[in-house]
Specification:
heterodimer; A: alpha/beta; Rossmann fold; four-stranded mixed beta sheet; 6 helices; 11 strands; globular; B: Rossmann fold; six-stranded parallel beta sheet; 21 helices; 10 strands; LUD_dom (chain B); Helical_ferredxn (chain B); transport (chain B); iron-sulfur (chain B); metal ion binding (chain B)
């Protein structure tokens, strides 16, 4: 018998009597998430927030913050004029090693923890939000959900090959529990809330 | 890693030699426990979430056969390659085979306690495969040639000066640097080079979803994603108990996991791997290694509900003062002490006794595992099967003999008081394990029953 079959057989023989699933719909809120809660949660996990009314404002702010020499990459056509290099599906992943700023559209933010949901559709290259030195995510102001339960309600209506919640810059406290921002991924995360 | 024959109390004694370090360890883990409390108290629905998580896991275990099949079917439909491993040896062989097929000799790995349990790094090292652990804490203990001492904070037993020394020896920084910021930056640069040059990455799995065939990996550092997305081949290793029925259930588990672990509302990255990107491969290895046996043990199957948050370790008065290495198993602390005897009763017979049974572990467990009750039940199983040390057994028998007769009990009390008063050196010495970290009490003149008899007359 293959290991697969012997494991499945052993599981079937040993699993306890059937227990039902709880009703988790009670945790859903169906209200819109609070932007101020999202901002507070994002700050608490080391992220920054900025409010903008259009892409022009973003162009201006990115230039002001990162200067003219930064390598900026974004798959968003609205920000094409900011990009210092071409970037699409055919861009080899290792050429991203020196990206300073990556700007990505996020599908929505989560008020309870400051996370932004981004999928491979927005990333184009899955390595981009991790390998970049600084990450900028743009979300629409009305796309804030209160909790993770509401998040999965939205996610259930979409398709993706890879998706991730990103809550702030990469961090570690492995050395004597001292929090250090910028472990392996971005050293900063800024969320632009548009609208 | 070093094979040990010492038991928990002998290893704890080693750890206890450095009193300042023990105090630091104790206080730091308690601080993390307090952060967990703060995070939990911010959610009025916290207890309902724990109950829901517990019920989802109960349902999972009760229907695991079908969920595993469903997961396999959906994962294959998504383009993942699914492998099954009956035990550690088979898991390691499968990993080795995939590495050979990819034609590489160097791989990068993110945190996976399962690969620790399987001894994967040693297995691959013997076959000429270099494995670099990429979680900062794991990289540090790897450089020190030690196993992790905590499942979430692998090098919590190390001081920053020691880490500086390790980086001085292995990563070429100047001597006597202990600034965490500088040391982390050093590791960042070192590991970036690794991520960019390794074609195969191995990660663990936090949750595998039967309904969709995807799996979720959670990190704060981003190391799992850096490894997986820069490599051609991604291997993800999971125990059969990592399954959850539906994706919506992640709403419950991701809310509980990191709040319980470190007091953060969520990890920085909660990555959902569903399909491999074009031209790349994802292999998932589903491992039993004793889990189906545990599933069949009515009293202990609940231990398979664990989501590896380590809250039970952070709160445990014994763990905090004895250190993770004293448990001599991949998963230390209270939960490890009920998982390990399932794998080897003889080798881990000491662990269920490394507890005060205070119940704090069960109180903080996000999936409501009755940890302290299982520790108590393991003790009975181990004694019945003859796995308890002779000295403990003889002591217990002597105690039973004494306590079962009032006459013998009074005699023993008298003798004890006489010794403490007239010959304290007979107990205040190294032969008495109780004396090692404590002063013996002053003996009262009378026992309670003698005192009662006298005072009743008055």
């Amino acid at each position: 018998m293959s290991s697969r079959d012997s494991i499945l057989k052993a599981v079937k023989e040993n699993q306890p009597e059937k227990a039902g699933l709880p009703d988790i719909s009670v945790f859903k809120t169906s209200t819109q998430g609070s932007l101020s809660k999202f901002a507070a949660a994002l700050n608490a996990v080391g992220g920054k927030i900025a409010y903008v009314s259009d892409y022009g404002e973003i162009l201006h702010m990115i230039k002001a913050q990162y200067g003219d020499h930064a390598k900026v990459i974004s798959p968003m056509k609205e920000l094409a004029m900011l990009c210092t290099e071409n970037f699409d599906l055919s861009t080899p992943v290792h050429s991203l090693h020196d990206v300073d700023v990556a700007i990505l559209k996020g599908q929505f933010g989560v008020a309870e923890n400051g996370a932004v949901w981004i999928t491979d559709k927005e990333m184009v290259n899955r390595a981009l939000p991790f390998i970049t030195q600084h990450l900028v995510a743009i979300i629409d102001w009305e796309m804030i959900v209160p909790t993770m339960h509401d998040s999965y309600e939205l996610i259930s209506r979409t398709r993706y090959g890879f998706g991730t919640f990103i809550a702030g810059p990469s961090k570690t406290a492995d050395i004597e529990q001292s929090l250090v921002i910028g472990a392996h991924g971005p050293r900063s995360m800024t969320v632009y809330v548009m609208g | 890693m070093e094979q040990t024959t010492k038991d928990h109390s002998a290893l704890a004694q080693q750890f206890n030699r450095d009193e300042d370090r023990v105090d630091w360890h104790d206080e730091t883990l308690w601080w993390i426990r307090e952060k967990r409390d703060k995070a939990a108290h911010q959610l009025p629905e916290w207890e309902s979430l724990r109950e829901a998580a517990s019920q989802i896991k109960n349902n999972t275990l009760s229907n695991l056969h079908d969920y595993l099949l469903q997961f396999e079917q959906n994962a294959i439909a998504n383009g993942l390659q699914v492998h099954w491993a009956a035990d550690a040896a088979e898991h390691n062989q499968i990993v080795h085979r995939i590495i050979n097929e990819a034609n590489v000799v160097r791989i990068v790995k993110s945190k996976s306690m399962l690969t620790e349990e399987c001894g994967l790094n040693e297995y691959l090292a013997k076959r000429g495969i270099e494995v670099i652990d990429s979680d900062l804490g794991e990289r540090i203990v790897q450089l020190a040639a030690e196993p992790p001492s905590h499942i979430v904070l692998p090098c919590i037993h190390k001081k920053k000066e020691e880490i500086g020394e390790l980086f001085h020896q292995h990563l070429g920084i100047e001597a006597n640097i202990s600034d965490p910021q500088f040391l982390t930056e050093t590791a960042r640069q070192h590991l970036r080079e690794i991520f960019l040059t390794r074609k195969l990455a191995l990660t663990g799995v936090n949750f595998a979803i039967a309904e969709t065939g995807e799996f979720v990996v959670c990190t704060n550092e981003g190391n799992a994603d850096m490894g997986a997305h820069l490599a051609e081949v991604h291997i993800a290793s999971m125990g059969i108990e990592k399954i959850i029925p539906e994706r919506a259930h992640l709403g419950v588990f991701l809310r509980l996991l990191t709040r319980s672990a470190t007091g953060q509302p969520i990890t920085t990255y909660s990555s959902h791997f569903k399909r491999p990107r074009e031209g790349k491969k994802i292999h998932i290895i589903i491992v039993d290694n004793g889990r189906t046996v545990q599933l069949g043990r009515k009293d202990f199957r609940n231990s398979l509900k664990c989501i590896r948050c380590a809250a039970c370790m952070n709160t445990c008065p014994v763990y905090r003062r004895s250190g993770g290495h004293s448990y001599h198993t991949a998963v230390a602390g209270p939960i490890g002490s009920i998982l390990a005897p399932n794998l080897d009763m003889k080798k881990y017979a000491d662990l269920p006794f490394a507890s005060t049974l205070c119940g704090s572990c069960s109180n903080v467990c996000p999936v409501k595992i009755d940890i302290h009750e299982q520790l108590y039940k393991w003790r009975q199983v181990l004694v019945k099967n003859g796995y308890t040390p002779t000295a403990k057994k003889a002591g217990m028998q002597l105690m039973t003999w004494t306590l079962s007769s009032p006459g013998r009990y009074h005699m023993a009390g008298k003798a004890g008081r006489w010794v403490l008063k007239n010959a304290p050196f007979a107990v205040n010495n190294k032969l008495n394990p109780w004396y090692r970290q404590r002063d013996m009490p002053e003996a009262p003149e009378l026992s309670f029953s003698e005192w009662y008899k006298q005072n009743k007359k008055n």
